[in-house]
Amino acid sequence: MSGANRVNRWSRLLPALFVVLAGCASIPPSVSELPVAGQAIELEDTPFYPQERYQCGPAALTTVLVQSGATATLEDMVDKVYLPGRQGSLQVELLAATRTEGRLPYVIDGSLAAIWRELEAGRPVLVLQNLGVATAIGDWSRWHYAVVVGIDAKRGEVVLRSGTDRRRVTATRTFLHTWRRGGYWGMVVLAPGELPAAPDRSRYFEAVAALEQAGRAAEAAIAWQAALGHWPGDSVALFGLANSRLVLGDYPAAEEAYRELLEREPGMVVARNNLALALAEQGQYDAALQEIDIALAANQDAALERELGDTAATIRRRKQAAD
Amino acid sequence: MGLLKARGALLRLVSVSIICMGFAQVAPAGIIGTAHLVDKESRAASLSRIEVLLAREDVGRQLEAFGVDRALVVERLNGLSHAELLELEGQLDSQVAGGDIIALIGAVFVVLLILELVGVTDIFKSF
After folding, report:
1. Preferred mutation among A56, A213, A241 to probe B, highest tally of B CBs within 10 A
2. Strand ranges (DSSP E) for chain A?
3. The pLDDT of residue A191 is above 80
4. Is there a contact between A123 and A188 (Cβ–Cβ < 8 Å)?
């Protein structure tokens, strides 16, 4: 390589390097601030599953699942979240696998304070890091899942179960850089009925609704019950509770919850549709069809119109079959 | 041609029904789920049952294409919410996959070393 060429290369590289460093240097204070000064916390009894090649996802997930009291095994989690063709695991699959273990995955706020609060509640936090970096001049990404089990505010350190390290200690600043490049993504595993340390209503509700869609109605019922404890009288939570009962086949209890809801919000068409189903399941077809008529009269939503029509048809068919 | 089309449609139907077989939800037909209120802002709220099934089929095929054992696909699909199925539909390969692979594209060792020394990256510690 000639000298001129070399100079040329560096002259292109150095400005790029400064851009990279400048871009990496700033961590917003809102992310790095802790609720406490000079304190430390560490969940030392968090289990450890050293990872096999590329399998940080299953290892990290097993760690947080077992800590929450689930009976997950590393082999099972490899089957559930490892994607051979990508040599890694997707975030949504970690959430999905948590649900199939009967647990509620909750994505926390992207801040050190949020991690601290979860640790205080006894929950380690599964995080996505990019240990490498993607820049304009090259992509050296190294996506990695690890579990934060401790923060030492005085020494400026974060403690992780990571890869093959049982106790990996990282400078808080470096951790924040790697976490920022992972989109500040972190999740905790909640046992049904447990609330996150700082619950965000819409995110918690989304999480429970997803649990319901994953067919875990029994766990969803407990989670909605807990939501009603925290947000008393919340219509969506009550609707959720009623729905879980309907799916579980507890029709009188479902009916009761729908009626309570409709007393407060008579125009809640979705609740009336499901009330009709709860009634039909109890053989009260005429009362059920009456509810559908009320719903159809009140409905403003074209998409629901079709669903209501379908429900009415189903109930009529069942009524005929019963007669 | 018409026959081929019919065959394609039949195959599609069969594969959809395979994916449906393990469908988690055993609920009274017609129930409107809580997600309808929770996902209000997203397209997932107004998905029809057939759209959900098609998304499941698509994501299931992608999982298989990426090496997931056929027997495990249904179980993995069952944990996903409708919104997540939509997110994955047609773009499983563009999602971040955490797995400790180092993509070394256009590697400039000196740059990496400096980034590591100033504590911006954490790439060189062994696992």
Report:
1. A213
2. 40-42, 89-90, 104-107, 125-130, 133-135, 138-140, 143-152, 157-162, 165-171, 186-190
3. yes
4. yes
Identify all chain A residues contacting B67, using CB atoms and an 8 Å cutoff.
83-85
Q: What is the ipTM of this complex?
A: 0.85
Measure the CA–CA gap between A219 and B37, rounded to whole angstroms. Answer: 19
- The domain covering A201-322 belongs, at the CATH homologous superfamily level, to Tetratricopeptide repeat domain (1.25.40.10)
Find the residue in B nearest to A161 (Cα): B127
Digit-coded pLDDT (tens) for A243-254 = 999 999 999 999
Domain ranges across chain B: 2-98
For residues A58 and A95, is the Cβ–Cβ distance under 8 A? Answer: no
CATH topology of domain A27-190: Cathepsin B; Chain A (3.90.70)
Contact flag A57-B121 (C-beta cutoff 8 Å): no
Domain regions of chain A by residue span = 27-190, 201-322
Contacts of A84 in chain B (CB under 8 A): 66-68
Per the prediction, chain A carries an average pLDDT of: 91
